[in-house]
Write a structure and sequence with these properties.
heterodimer; A: 791 residues; alpha+beta; Aldehyde Oxidoreductase, domain 4; Aldehyde Oxidoreductase, domain 3; seven-stranded mixed β-sheet; five-stranded mixed β-sheet; 29 strands; 29% helix; B: 289 residues; Uridine Diphospho-n-acetylenolpyruvylglucosamine Reductase, domain 2; Uridine Diphospho-n-acetylenolpyruvylglucosamine Reductase, domain 3; Enolase-like, domain 1; 3 domains; five-stranded antiparallel β-sheet
């Protein structure tokens, strides 16, 4: 039975408390933190070669520059820290090692070969130029094909075939079902490597307190606790002596859910020299060295009945993992993201897949909003459009015939969907978009006012809020999976909430205050949320993978329950009533049904902290605080339907998104305005991946897109007006009924936009199997299709 | 991303500017709005030893009408030019083009002279300057000299400005009566660097094309006149069919190369499409008095 929830602060579009300071320029990012006097600045000497043996490093000229304190090579640093090692000793995994500063070989353009320490960042850049490295260039592999080719150069000597991770699974009875189906369809989809390009790039300040022997480490991260634990383990300083603080973080999107080599070096040098070290990354370096994403290929084979029912799916997935596996997500993250998301909203029982993470001489790849799912659904929904066309069905009708509409449901990967609204979201999105009327009036030529115009519909799911058991299952042992909240009603009666996460724009200070307020019967403005500082907030996982609302929400609900019960007991004592008769609302504890018999929370707090004439009731401990942890049983699945309308200019190949409709279900909504923002932002990510974003390595492994002039992020002007509605189907397995929402927008936008372009160009027989659809590529497809027709 | 070491001067008069540029010659670079030079310096692609900041010199940001010629100081901000009533009246094409030269925040800093002197092959203003038949006034220790666009734009990121000189003035003849104009460009995004663009200025006698100047950007090392298209249209009545036909000739006017953002083939096709649209868009707009 679906639970019903009381009205209150949850569900209100409370204005974000974050926005006022950010809009006034009062945000404090890593570079705004005032470092101690005499802080030294780091510069990293990056390899200009994609693959090269390091023959010699001459640091003498750099060391002679005034203001240069030291220049260190990998050999100088190797004893200060353990190598970065992440993946487990499990079948399918190959354990790799990465030195923060490489010694033997450079494995991508941007791999670090030396570190300079200087009095200011200008001198550091001068010194970086003055370090003379002699390289012996080696043949480089950049693409999936080149890396897998027989006799390809090895990225790591101990991995013969460049395959770092491999996973192959097949459901029982797959072959017979696949063979028996009357229709088979095979297509191969390819998505370009893209960059997160967060507005704030990476950076950190490592401060060693000489007297106490402690390290304070400011860093632009999504995972302060994971960073602290890793620093402790790799540098040998106990975690109790390390404080990691993520101040305001200007975007992370998964890219900052990692420990990076520069962080290790800064912390190691702070400990070694008992001083302070700072590094702030620039945009070019961000493009070269911050994890990329989604350089992937999907070969999809579908077996389908005469009625268009999917009987079996086989997928062969390749992901380009780059030169190294990254801590803590490892080499399997993107590779497994494909098959894990592939069943999506569709009902089929037979599934076979092989997925491989392939090493190349490129920047490591990793998590980026949706991980693999945007590329996965590009492939899945591309297949649905192809099958519909081939079987003469409307693409929406084909989807409807295959949608999961009865819950709970267990998919072909064995994942359980507790609740969902696939059919309802589709219906409402069709209604809002006027799909049926649009199809009816759409000309077969797709030409309207001189442009090809089309519509794309995508029905997608988003896996959110994964708990500890899921991460263990996936072999991601370095991701705890749970989160925690420490809630205090302070002596004044106001509330502090210390949450184990670290926001990068999600609005946690607002949404967590709404949950606390709801549970403790106060107003959100009475709640102060503290997060991102390992010295004050309890241990937990951090903010990534659409987990904040579920994990923090659950922890807050559990912690506030403990406090609420104590409030009731104290109130019962004051009011001479039974605790079971006490309710808490509007800042008071009162006797149910007798609202005049009440005591203010501030009075209860005074009693609890012994700041009142009254003693705390016998048997109660002083204080009014509680800590609780929350680990959801499995993942929770959000769902959505996206409808995109595009126009393609036949003469230039330029695409304009003219209209956009999305109906979304992320369970119980905490703050509708913030959910709107999450979906809007994610759609802009998807629009970029489809229309313009591509990181391009040339054959020698040089990254040719290292500025925002060459890497084409969309701007507000490229965004359509988005019409959005929320459905609320609460989860039955998470506390509070929340589902995650951070990634769904991009997961739906990529296939919907690609599908709309396909529909617009359908008279030419064009299928969309590669991204991005930049104007020259689109025009080349149009010209090739027209040439084929006339031949 | 920190620039290499440089010496910074902020002169307040033209005489001081010329003295500094003369003293440091090839080592010096004038700083206008800084929207291209500063990022290049931060990336250490540009490493001038001496920066001569023109921003304090008040004589350089005037807009005036010199007896039918629009005279622009090099430090006129792009947003200022776009808003200038004088610019709009005398040279509508320049105002039209300035809408495309960057996001508003950039246009508020960036200058007209800075963009012209930077000579980026996909920058909009060199194309407009060519279509407008602008005159470039260059000044140095030896006085002033004037150049037309074909002599001013030497190559990619290169102009005829010599060490010791700077772009002192841009002079643009007032659009004749019955002139129409348009600038359009196209790329992967609405805003951001375009792949190509076309500036068109046409003077009509009734429906007949009396004078036409078309310039394309993004198809060579500098702006390129679309002379074959112009020739096809000159002296003729501009029907839709003729315009479409004439635009096709633009393919022969340009000889682009393939780069990161587009193939040579695409750039040719784009030029044809944009030439046709620029002419049609110009004709759909108001004529000058």
């Amino acid at each position: 039975m679906a639970q019903t929830y009381a009205r209150g602060p949850i569900g209100q579009s409370t204005l974000r408390v974050e926005d006022d300071p950010l809009l006034k320029g009062l945000g404090a990012f890593v570079d705004d933190v005032a470092p101690p006097k005499n802080t030294l600045h780091l510069g990293f000497v990056r390899s200009p070669h994609a693959h090269a043996r390091i023959c010699s490093i001459d640091t003498s000229a750099a060391k002679r520059l005034p203001g240069v304190v030291d220049v260190l090579t990998g050999r100088d640093l190797v004893d200060l820290m353990k190598p970065i090692q992440v993946d487990p000793d499990k079948p399918g995994f190959k354990i790799t090692h990465r030195l923060a500063v490489t010694i033997d070989k450079a494995r991508f353009v941007g791999d670090t070969v030396a570190v300079v320490v200087a009095e200011n960042p200008y001198i550091a850049d001068d010194a970086v130029e003055a370090v003379a490295v002699e390289y012996e260039a080696l043949p480089a592999v950049v693409s999936l094909d080149a890396s897998l080719a027989p006799g390809a150069p090895k990225i790591h000597d101990y991995i013969a075939d460049n395959v770092i991770y491999e996973n192959e699974q097949k459901t029982e009875g797959f072959d017979a079902v696949f063979t028996a189906a009357p229709h088979k369809f095979v297509r191969t989809f390819r998505t370009s490597r893209i960059a997160v390009a967060s507005m704030e790039a990476r950076g950190c300040i490592a401060i060693f307190e000489r007297g106490l022997g402690t390290l304070t480490f400011w860093t632009s991260t999504q995972v302060p606790h994971i960073v602290r634990h890793a620093l402790s383990e790799m540098l040998g300083l106990s975690d109790s002596k390390i404080r990691v603080i993520a101040p305001d973080v200007g975007g992370g999107f998964g890219m900052k859910a990692y420990l990076y080599p520069e962080e290790l070096v800064a912390a190691a040098l702070a400990i070694k020299y008992r001083g302070s070290f700072k590094w702030v990354q620039d945009r070019v370096d961000d493009f070269l060295t911050s994890n990329h994403a989604r350089d992937q290929q999907y070969k999809m084979s579908y077996a389908v009945s005469a009625e268009g029912i999917i009987k079996a799916i086989r997928a062969d997935i390749l992901v380009n993992i780059g030169a190294y596996a990254s801590f803590p997500m490892g080499s399997s993250l993107e590779a497994n993201g494909g098959p894990r998301n592939m069943p999506g909203p569709y009902d089929f029982a037979q599934f076979a897949f092989r997925t491989r993470a392939v090493a190349t001489n490129t920047c490591p790849t990793g998590a980026f909003r949706g991980v693999s799912a945007p590329s996965t659904f590009f492939s899945v929904e591309g297949m649905m459009d192809t099958i519909a066309k081939e079987l003469g069905l409307d693409p929406v009708e084909l989807r409807r015939r295959n949608l999961v509409t009865k819950f709970p449901y267990t998919n072909a990967m064995g994942q359980r969907y507790d609740t969902g609204s696939n059919g309802e979201c589709l219906d409402r999105a069709l209604e809002l978009s006027g799909y049926v009327a649009y199809r009816r009036s759409q000309p077969a030529s797709r030409l309207l006012d001189g442009k090809y115009r089309g519509i794309g519909v995508a029905t997608v799911t988003e896996q959110t809020g994964q708990g500890a058991s899921r991460y263990k299952e996936r072999g991601l042992y370095r991701v705890p999976g749970f989160d925690a909240a420490l809630i205090k009603i302070e002596p004044s009666g106001k509330v502090s909430a210390f949450v184990s996460q670290a926001a990068q724009g999600q609005g946690h200070l607002t949404t967590w205050s709404q949950i606390v307020a709801q549970e403790l019967g106060v107003v959100p403005s009475d709640v102060t949320v503290i997060q991102g500082d390992t010295a004050t907030v309890p241990f937990g996982s951090g903010t990534f993978a659409s987990r904040g609302a579920i994990l923090a929400g659950g922890a807050i609900i559990r912690a506030t329950k403990i406090i609420r019960d104590k409030v009731k007991r104290i109130a019962a004592s004051v009011l001479e009533a039974s605790a079971t008769d006490i309710e808490v609302a509007d800042g008071y504890a009162f006797v149910a049904g007798v609202p005049k018999m009440r005591v203010a929370l501030s009075d209860i707090a005074s009693i609890a902290y012994s700041l009142d004439a009254r003693l705390i009731p016998e048997g109660e401990e002083h204080g009014l605080e509680a800590i609780a942890h929350y680990d959801p049983p499995t993942s929770t699945v959000s769902n959505a339907t996206h409808v995109a309308f595009v126009a393609v200019d036949p003469a230039t190949g330029a695409i304009e998104v003219e209209r956009y409709v999305v109906v979304h279900d992320c369970g119980r909504v905490i703050n509708p305005m913030i959910v709107d923002g999450q979906v809007h932002g994610a759609i802009s990510n998807g629009l970029g991946q489809v229309l313009s974003e591509a990181l391009i390595y040339d054959e020698s492994g040089q990254l040719t897109t290292t500025t925002l002039l060459d890497y084409h992020l969309p701007t507000a002007l490229d965004m359509p007006t988005i019409q959005m509605e929320h459905m609320e189907t609460p989860s039955e397995i998470t506390l509070g009924g929340f589902k995650g929402v951070g990634e769904g927008g991009v997961i739906g936008a990529v296939p919907a936009l690609a599908g709309a372009v396909r529909d617009a160009l359908s008279p030419l027989g064009i299928e969309i199997i590669r991204l991005p659809l930049d104007p020259p590529y689109v025009l080349s497809m149009i010209e090739a299709a027209k040439a084929k027709r006339t031949n | 991303m920190k620039p290499a070491k440089f010496t910074y001067y902020a002169p307040e008069t033209v005489a001081e500017i010329i003295a500094l540029l003369g003293r440091y010659g090839d080592d010096a670079r004038p700083l206008a709005g800084g929207q291209s030079l500063v990022p290049l310096m931060n990336m250490r692609v540009a490493r001038p030893a001496v920066l001569v900041d023109l921003n304090r010199c008040k004589a350089l940001d005037a807009v005036s009408d010199d007896d039918g010629t629009l005279v622009l100081g090099p430090m006129v901000r792009q947003s200022g030019g776009e808003r200038s009533e004088l610019v709009r009246r005398l040279c509508p094409l320049l105002a039209q083009t300035l809408r495309f030269t960057g996001p508003r925040a950039v246009r508020n800093r960036a200058t007209i002279g800075g963009s012209l002197a930077h000579a980026d092959p996909v920058a909009e203003l060199p194309g407009a300057a060519l279509a407008l038949d602008a005159t470039f006034v260059i000044e140095g220790a030896n006085g002033r000299r004037t150049l037309k666009p074909d002599a001013f734009f030497v190559g990619q990121l290169t102009t005829a400005i010599e060490p010791g000189e700077f772009l002192r003035e841009i002079r643009i003849p007032k659009a004749a009566a019955n002139t129409v104009s348009a600038f359009i460009e196209s790329g992967a995004r609405q805003e951001g660097v375009a792949i190509g663009g076309v500036a068109a200025q046409i003077t009509l006698a009734g429906e007949v094309c009396q004078d036409i100047r078309l310039a394309a950007i993004g198809v060579g090392s500098g702006p390129v006149r679309l002379t074959a298209t112009e020739r096809t249209l000159l002296g003729r009545k501009l029907s839709e069919a003729l315009i479409t036909e004439a635009a096709k000739a633009a393919e022969d006017d340009v000889d682009p190369t393939t780069d990161l953002h587009a193939t040579a083939h695409y750039r040719k096709r784009l030029t044809v499409a944009l030439a046709e649209r620029a002419i049609k868009q110009a004709l759909a707009g108001p004529r000058t008095n």
